[in-house]
Each structure stands twice: as structure tokens, then as C-alpha cells.
Amino acid sequence: MCELGRPKETCISAPQELSNGGGIDTGRTISFSDAVIAIAITLLALDLKVPQLPESSVAAELPSALLELWPNLYSFVLSFWIIGSYWLAHHRISRLVGAYDRRMQLINLLFLMWIVLMPFSTALVGEYEHQQLPVVIYAVHNILTSLTLTWLWRHAIRDSRLVEANLDPSLVRYSNFRSLVVQGVFLLSIGISFISVDAARLSWVLIWPLTGLVL
Amino acid sequence: MCELGRPKETCISAPQELSNGGGIDTGRTISFSDAVIAIAITLLALDLKVPQLPESSVAAELPSALLELWPNLYSFVLSFWIIGSYWLAHHRISRLVGAYDRRMQLINLLFLMWIVLMPFSTALVGEYEHQQLPVVIYAVHNILTSLTLTWLWRHAIRDSRLVEANLDPSLVRYSNFRSLVVQGVFLLSIGISFISVDAARLSWVLIWPLTGLVL
Amino acid sequence: MCELGRPKETCISAPQELSNGGGIDTGRTISFSDAVIAIAITLLALDLKVPQLPESSVAAELPSALLELWPNLYSFVLSFWIIGSYWLAHHRISRLVGAYDRRMQLINLLFLMWIVLMPFSTALVGEYEHQQLPVVIYAVHNILTSLTLTWLWRHAIRDSRLVEANLDPSLVRYSNFRSLVVQGVFLLSIGISFISVDAARLSWVLIWPLTGLVL
Amino acid sequence: MCELGRPKETCISAPQELSNGGGIDTGRTISFSDAVIAIAITLLALDLKVPQLPESSVAAELPSALLELWPNLYSFVLSFWIIGSYWLAHHRISRLVGAYDRRMQLINLLFLMWIVLMPFSTALVGEYEHQQLPVVIYAVHNILTSLTLTWLWRHAIRDSRLVEANLDPSLVRYSNFRSLVVQGVFLLSIGISFISVDAARLSWVLIWPLTGLVL
Q: Which sign, positive or negative, has the C-alpha torsion A167, B155, B8, A183?
């Protein structure tokens, strides 16, 4: 958009926000991200639908109808804590990031896109819990989400203008380690799913003890 | 993850956020919690569905069809004020908490998980208002929510780094008292539900006069 | 809860937040209210459902199926601007309020409850646009919402601790006037609905020219 | 509302917020807008529904049932990035705006109304991806959204009280240029839709390379 020989003042290009005096307002990007994550984590519960039973048989069938929601409840709880962990990771990263350039805005939007799709993948696994395909989709979805967060993080620490001056190295190590665990567990679960779909789904809970995030 | 003999600087562990210079940003945790509670309280209304009637009989049947929504409206209003009270309690606690450590983040997420599930339990009671099982589920759900809030509170006041210096003792007493009332009323209602399900549901409104939260 | 003769320090009562050093954090109440209003205003659009047509007749029937959404679109647009106006009014009030006491918190929650129910009333009018009952419900719903906002406002200005010191009298006059217009128009529309339901629905748009809120 | 001869102090009119000492609180308008945009961008995913298959044929039919979601996924991703771009544009504008007057509040609400309707248009295109009408509706919808954002921007820069003193001219040029690209691409796609509906839908992705917003 800026041809050669054209005076620089008249060329039109996506502004390099950072060079124009100090980064896009970080606070707004963070609160927008928080809102999107908060909505996605709340919409997870929409997949838990109250069973519709004919009035005559409610008393007899309600307990078993509620028990049938078990796989949906399992994937709800799992996804709630996975999104919750992503939020904590995003939170941890944001504390170290002093400014957002345009590319970080776009990587952050990509991360939010995966988060927004999470209720779909969750509902898919909850509905067809014994099928391999949903389990693989869920695992790939989470690997992509985690890789995007790693990308966001790597982009920020590569550029000294974007991170806080005194970056705590133990926090950098932990963030890298945590990403590898998440990606590793989900990659492994794809392999396991060829042997047992149920074992693959259960293997996902390994994330928390491995990253030390237990109550 | 930190074997013996390994130099401390290279071991990887979930960072003790607090020791690394002053706690995770409290504001962001609070605004994330507020967003989740705000969404959950708004989604409650999704259970109130406009009745679908054939065009020929709308005029005749609409009034009675709307009246049939009464139990759903009752549980909507009840849950709206219960979540509203939890928000006020969370608000009250947050004002006294100066920092969030990692465990508080996790307890807070657990609290939010119960909040996110509230529209489901509400819809269940609204749909099967004369069944005992939904009433018991709703009561247990609220006891767990209130206990988690108590846990959050107890964890904070146990650690002087997490609370504001000049903790008002009357506020501490009121928070403890309020939790006991909520847990007591819901526990009692489980007992009542063995005699009368309707009385159990009605007993829940006792929370407000007992905690002095009336307009 | 505080019997006579009991030492004041040990009695348990809902804390008079204000007396304990300066009001509940106003910012958090406002941002919670904003989130609830934002969600309700966005959920309005959920009532606009894409028509489901058999594949063979899509090309022929889609235009008329979309035109049939017209009453839903009318009530969506109307409710969007009504909630938008409530938000502006809430915004206007909040700028003058320096602190929230407990009663204001409860009145504010009541106001939010009416807002949260707005998508239901909107869908009801959109679905049965020629019936009197939904029109009356919608009008009563809005009168209650506006009265609650007036209550919030009156409670705040009655107590000098709650409002900013230099209260602009023209803003007070405008807020009172605006409330009366909203309540008056909706009250009038109930009367009109006995003659013509369609005229009653159309009369609601008078709010904007009468309150001077036009682009 | 202010008749001639009436003393100015007693006339009632919508307050000229700005003249009464410095603009409506900009922060609240921005965070309300962010919340609405965040909710709308998240609700986009509600259109991706898990296919319901009979248990006997799940294994065989799930892959093809998921592939049939492809047009819905395409319009989800497209709309996600379009709303994301609007958010970035709104963000860019807001950084330069120091105050909101009443007219800007109303233009901003109009912009939010288009955003709130975006999930509907998205679902329409996703459902009937080979029909011309949904494609034209989607294009017109986006032209109106972009024009409203231009209006907001033009209104702000026309009034020196509303913008920051040192307005960066390259940012003004970029904002104008970006709006023209968005409006141009969607206008062009309406023309293309008379020849090929699929080509029209595909032409929308031109927005990103043309505005230089690529990762």
C-alpha cells in the first residue's frame, strides 16, 4: 500500500500501534478476553439440558434420566476446569506483558476463537462419549488452543518492548512447562483413543496433577 | 517436580504467585467472577420459554399457558435472588481480600462452577416442581455453593498476607452467620422434603428475613 | 438479631456497609450491572430464529419466511433501544451516586431482575403481536422497571451520603421527567390496547421524541 | 420542551452531558460496548449444533454429519474475524476519543445493535449458503455496521472537545481507508452474488489482506 517514491506521510498502512507511542491499551484487551472466556465457560452449562419426561412417568424415570446426563456432566466439569486453566495461564501471561502490538491482538483473537468453540467440542464429546472421532476432535482442539497460547507468549517475550522489564525466569519456565504438559497429554490421548476411547477421555485429567494445579 | 539435590533455580513448579511479589492481580479475578455471575444470573431467564400455541386457539389458551409458567417464574425469581445474594457475599469477601494466591484462584473457580450450574438446577426444579429429587438436588447444590464460599473466606482470613490489615470483626461475624443460615435453611429443607416437597421449596425464602437482607 | 441488653460488639446484623467506612465499592456494582444489561440486550436477538425450510422450497419461501420475522424484528429493535435507554438512565444516575448502601444494592438487583426478564416479554410480544395480553404484560413490565429506577434514584438523592456533593439540578429534573414520560407512555398504551392492540404497540415509540433522545 | 420566555433554569431538556462538566464517563461506555461485542462474538458459536443421530448409526454417520457443518463453520470463522476486526476498529477509535456526548452514545448503541444482530445474519448464511438473499442480507448488514462506525468516528473528529488533542493523522487515514475497504468489498460482493453466490461469499475474505490485518 506504500509504493516506492511516494512520500511516507501519505501512505496508508495498518498502524504500527506500538511505534505510535506505547501500545494498544492493554487493559481493554484483557477485559475483552476475560469477558469472552467468562461467557464461553458459562455457556458450557447450556449443554446440560433438563430431561423432558411425560408427567405420568416422571417419578419413576427422573433418577435414571438424570444419571444419563453423567457423560455430559463429566465433559462439562472437565471443560470448565480446562477453560479455567487457560484463563489462569492467560492471566499469568498478561501480568508479564506490558503492551499489545497488532500481531498480539490477532494471536489473542485466535486464542479466543478456540475458547469460543470449546462448548461445541464439549457438547460433542458429551453426546457421543464412546466414539473416537469426538475425542480426537476435542484433543486436537485443545492442542491448537494451547499452541496459540504458546505463540502469544513466545511473540511477547521475543520483543523486549512488550514484556515487563524484570521477567521472572521461574515464571517463564513454568509457562513453557505447563504448555508442554497440556499438549503432551492431549497428543498422548489421541494415541490412546485407538486402543480405548474411554481411557483416552479419562487420561485428560492427568493435566492437573502434572501441572501441580490441585486444590 | 523438584528432585532433591537439583539446584533450586532450575526446578519447575507452579509459581507461588504471592511470594513472587504480591499476589495475582485481584481486580482481574474479581471482574472475571463478576462476568461469570452476571451471565449465569441472566441465563436463568432462558428457562422461561414463550409458550407455542396454534394460532386458532391463542386468544383462549394464552392466559392459562402463561399461568403454567408460574413454577418456572417462582424458581427464576428465587434463583435470581439467591445468586444475587451470593454475589453480594462474594463482593463483601473481596473487599477484605487484598490478594489472591493460587489456591484461592482454584477455590474461586470451584465457586464459579457451582454458580454456572445454577441455571440447570433452577430449570430442573421449575420443570418438576412437585418431585422430591429436584428439590434435594437444588438444596445440596446450594449447600455446596455456600460451603465453597465459606472455604474461600476461611482460606483468606487464615493467611494475613491475603486480607486487608484492619479486618472489621463485625463483618467477619456477619459473613460466618450468613453462611450458616444459608446452609441451615437448605439442610432443613431436605428434611422437610420427605414430608412435603412444596413446603420444602417454600422454606427457601426464609433465607432473606433470617439474614436481614430485605428491602 | 440484637437482643436488648446484649453488648453491641457481639450482636450479629447485616452490616451497614456505609457506616463501616465509606460504602460498598461503587465501581464493582456498576460493572456488574453493565454486564447484566449487556447480556440481556444481546440475548434479545436469540428470539430472531433462522426459519427452517425444506431444501426443495427454500428459494421460493425464504423471502416470505423472513418477512414473517417482521414482528419479532420490530420488538427486538424496540426492546434494544428501551434497554439502551435504561442503560443510559442507569449510567446518568450512577455518575451522581458516590456510594451504594445495602438497600441500594437490593433496589439495583431488583432493577436488574426486570432487565433480565426483558427478553422474555419481548419474545412474547414478538410471537403474539396481535394479542392484548402480551402487550399489557410488556407495558406493565416496563412501568415496573422504570419505577424501580425511580426508586433507586429517589433513595440515593434522599441521603446526602450517597450522592455527589454538587448535584446538578437540571440533571435531577431531566431524570424525573424522563421517568414520568416512560411510565406515562406505557400506562397510556394499556388504555389504548383496549381499542387497538397494534396502536398500543406503536405508541411505545413516542418515548424517544418525548424524552428528546433522537439521533 | 423549552418554550420561549420561560426562564432557562426551569426548562427540561435532555442534558447536554458535555457542557455540564466533561462528558459521560468514557470508560463505562467502552466496557459496556466490549461486553456486548464479547457476548455477540461468543453467541456466534451457538449456531454450531452437535448433530443428533440415532445411536445405531452414529459411528457410520458422524463424520459426514460433521462435514455438513462445514458451511456453518465457515460463516462462524468469517463472522468471528469480522466482529473481531470491528472490535479492533472500535478500540482504535476509542483510544482517540476523550469524551462521549449524547449523540455519540446513541450512534454507539446503533453500532452495538448491528453487532448484536450479527449472529442472526451469520446463522442465515450458514443455513442457506447457496441462496442469494442471505448473502445480500449479510453484505448489507456489514455495510450498515461499517457506516455506523464511520459515523461514530466522523462525529468525534468533527468536534475538538471529543478527541484527544494530538490526533495522529496516519491513524485517521488508516481508519478511513479501512472503512472504505470493508464497505467496498461488501458492496462488490452484492454485485458478484448475481453471477455466483459462492464467489460472493468467498470474496469477503479479501478484507483482511486489503486492510493489512494478517497474522
A: negative
Q: How far is CA C73 from the centre of its chain?
A: 19
Q: Among A19-23, C2-6, D118-122, which is the least confidently predicted range?
A: A19-23
The C-alpha atoms of residue B110 and residue B146 are separated, in whole angstroms, by: 11
With beta carbons under 8 A apart, name residues in chain C contacting D35.
Answer: 34-35, 38-39
Question: What phi, psi does A44 have (nearest 5°)?
Answer: -50, -40
Chain B neighbours (≥3 Cβ pairs under 8 A) are: A, C
- Model's pTM, two decimal places? 0.88
Nearest chain A Cα distance for residue B53, angstroms: 18
Q: How many residues does chain C have?
A: 215
Round to whole Å and give the CA distance between B106 and D101. 42
Identify the pLDDT of residue B108. 93
Task: Quote the CA–CA distance of B165 and B173 in Å, as a whole number.
Answer: 17
**Residues paired with C126 in a beta bridge:** none
How high is the ipTM of this complex?
0.84
pLDDT of residue C172: 77
Sign of torsion over alpha carbons D5, D10, D14, D16: positive
What 8-state DSSP symbol labels residue C22?
Answer: S
Q: List chains adjacent to chain A, taking adjacency as at least 3 C-beta pairs closer than 8 Å.
A: B, D
For A106, the closest of D34, D170, D213 (CB atoms) is D213
With beta carbons less than 8 A apart as the criterion, state whether B90 and C163 touch.
Answer: no
- Residue B103, chain A, CB below 8 Å: the answer is yes
- Ranges of residues in chain B with a pLDDT under 50 are 1-11, 16-23
Shortest CB distance from B45 goes to which of C120, C131, C137?
Answer: C120
Query: Looking at residue D182, what is its pLDDT?
Result: 92
Contact criterion met (CB below 8 Å) for A1 and A13 = yes
Contact D38 A32 (CB under 8 A): yes
Whether residue C167 lies within 8 A of chain D, CB to CB, comes out as: no
Residues D98-117 as b or e (16 or more Cβ within 10 Å = b): bbbbbbbbbbbbbbbbbbbb
What pLDDT sits at residue C8? 46
Question: Chain B residue closest to A169 (CA)?
Answer: B9
Question: What is the torsional sign of CA D177, D178, D181, D184?
Answer: negative
Q: Tens digit of pLDDT for each residue in D54-73? A: 878 888 888 888 988 888 89
Using one digit for the tens of pLDDT, what is the confidence trace for C42-61? 999 988 888 888 878 888 88
How crowded is residue B193: how many other Cβ atoms within 10 Å of its Cβ?
22
Residues 132-161 of D with CB under 8 A from A: none
Identify which of D106, D107, D9, D19 has the alpha carbon closest to the alpha carbon of residue C213. D106
Rounded Cα gap, residues C213 and D13, in angstroms: 10
CA of C208: which chain D residue's CA is closest?
A: D14
Contacts of D64 (CB under 8 A, 6+ apart): none
Chain D positions in Cβ-Cβ contact with residue C59 (cut-off 8 Å):
131
CB proximity D109 to C under 8 Å: yes
Q: Would an 8 Å CB–CB cutoff place C27 in contact with chain D?
A: no
